[in-house]
Amino acid sequence: MSSSATAGIRTYKNYVNGEWVASASGQTFPVYDPSTEEVIAEVAAAGAADVDLAVKAARAAFDSGPWATTTAQDRGRVLFKLAEKIRQNSPQLAEIECRNTGKPIVEAEYDIADVATCFEYYGGLATKVLGSVNPVPANALSFTLREPVGVAGQIIPWNYPLLMAAWKLAPALAAGCTCVLKPAEQTPLTALEFANCFGEVGLPPGVVNILNGPGETAGAALVAHPGVDKIAFTGSAAVGKIIVKSAADTLKRVTLELGGKSPNIFFTDADWEASIDGALFGVFINQGEVCSAGSRILVEKKIYSKFVEAMTEKAKRIKLGAPLERDTKMGPLVSKEQYDRVSSYLELGKKEAKVAIGGGRPKQFGKGYYVEPTIFYDVDNTARIAREEIFGPVASVIPFDGEADAIRIANDTPYGLAAAVWTRDIYKAFRVVKSLRAGIVWVNHMQPTYVEAPWGGYKQSGFGRELGPWGLEEYLETKQVFVNLDETPIGWY
Ligand code: ADP
Ligand code: MG
After folding, report:
1. pTM, two decimal places
2. CATH code 3.40.309.10 region(s) in the chain
3. 352 Cβ partners below 8 Å, 6+ apart?
4. Which residues of the chain, if any, have pLDDT below 50?
5. Ligand 1: which of 29, 162, 223, 239 to mutate, most ligand atoms within 8 Å of CB?
């Protein structure tokens, strides 16, 4: 086991080359339960020296370790075993995820189930990577080999900690890559617990390494390291830009899944009850800490006032509570930093628009980073609360006048991760689908995400795709092999 109990606080190290190691500096940092504001773990803080060790281990495992010669079938089997371990330990993992993020336990359970499904999916896909034979006009055979891209540096956020780790580790391992994963410093615990089973399932040392620590040090060193071939990042657009610039020095491959300000569009003819639910669910699920949150709620003028009223009435029923209670629908935000950030947007929103409900801290909690579900209305799409990603339970309701206006407002954003449209008119639905610049468009729903289908953004929401065969592609290189079949010398000189 990695962890030992000292006065209820668990301690964790970095996982490098199949072993638990302290950071070179000996430094650690605290990890919190955001519902109690108490420290629940002390975790080793990796610096550049630790990053170097982990990358060297991943490099050696890729270049000459047993992983380099495993068959796709064997890699698939390892992934199935990882899925099995997740399922066996799902109650504990869900509880740790719940305590560390503040998300409701029921949502944490869904997340952990999705983690297992993700490993199973890529376990199956490992043996389905196909090359091509290319019809070159020569007496030759041209074909392709699909090869792993190498050492993958993977930097993930705190909103779905183990699930984001799975979205990155599973396709990378299926492809035959080795990995250095850096969880968000707020929420490293489930990934660290998961690492306890790596040896048992037959992952050779160095194939998956986990480093903890702040993005500005551990993350930045990983991005800059010349031994890393690819960076896969999920997080804020601001950090995405820093990563692209830094990765340019070593011309790493980069895939980015960044933020959003996703429009959730409601036409007059949409199913009423489903719409109100969909508007609330779209923005308040996981406390609004969702990259695809439907944080701009676009409502057709004819139903606008009634819609705001109905949303407000139903929002009153959202049960805020302790994350471990099964009827809790919203827990606290993940950290003090996030609470302060969201709170500052609440103050800004009160100046930029009208408040239908919420706007502050719920009074019933003495402790914890709780924020009320907040609905701003009469929001202009140029307002900062309509343009900037807040990453909390904050909705901006914006009226529109007809289909063209809805499309114009929806696309008037630097982001393009997700969108949704609600209508019973299939002509209108598909016209709007085609007009929206976003990596996913839901019709009459918002948020369902499945491992079989692609995920990623247009515009400043990033590039590259995760999940499905698309996610595996991002970890593969394509090698062309040209075999001359004509024995005649070239005869050029
Ligand atoms: P937030 O603003 O919510 O903290 P971030 O984009 O900063 O979101 O964090 C997402 C992930 O990126 C985290 O794992 C974090 O440690 C990491 N990160 C933050 N800054 C950097 C950086 N300069 N270089 C590499 N990784 C970073
Ligand atoms: Mg940050």
Report:
1. 0.97
2. 263-443
3. 376, 379, 380, 383, 384, 385
4. 1-6
5. 239
